[in-house]
Amino acid sequence: MTLHIFVAHEPESIALLTQHLDAAAYPESPAYGRHLTFRQLNSLMAPRIGSLVAIRVWIEGAGVSWNDVKHNLAQDILTVELRVGEAEVLLQAEYYNLAANTGVRDKRRLSIVRAARYSLPDSIKRFVDVVGPTSRLPAMPPLATAESGGALGTTTDATCVKPAWLRSRYGTSKYTLAEPSTNSSLAITGSLATSTSIRMMSPTSLARTTGRR
Length: 213
Hints:
Layout: E1 2-7, H1 11-25, H2 38-45, H3 49-61, E2 69-71, E3 77-81, H4 84-91, E4 95-101, E5 109-115, E6 128-132, H5 163-169, H6 203-210
């Protein structure tokens, strides 16, 4: 299994990063637009040597070689390939194989290894933010939906709205413009992964939004 260890950032580093972000984001700031380079960001967020030394002692104490540990450029994310038994010793945990149906048409089963709980030695708790995979379960994929052309549901997602659906919803399948030159349009907008529901798309709410009745 692949174990990810997220090293805790120093409060001073987080505060300094916040200052850099604020200064680069506000037009009134003399440093507006002067964003950190990738190298500068990695240098800023790099953990202290003492943190990595403590984590190394912990990992090697469980019989795992430090040479097997990989890290990103900032060295704040450590990755190591372990046998389940080694991870159990390292985290004082007991892992289980969990399986569940994904709900998709091919009936694939999702199989993962997780622990109900885990524990870190007091000597390194302040140096580690998160270790995974441990007790957190992944989000299940959405259940399969009906094929397009099937029965109309009561809700829809903005990513699958088609003109035929809208005409059926609002009873305008046989409607034609009395004046072809009339500028008539309908727009549905969303942001930050939001979606549109029937309640948002009711004729009353659309009329209220557009000012037409």
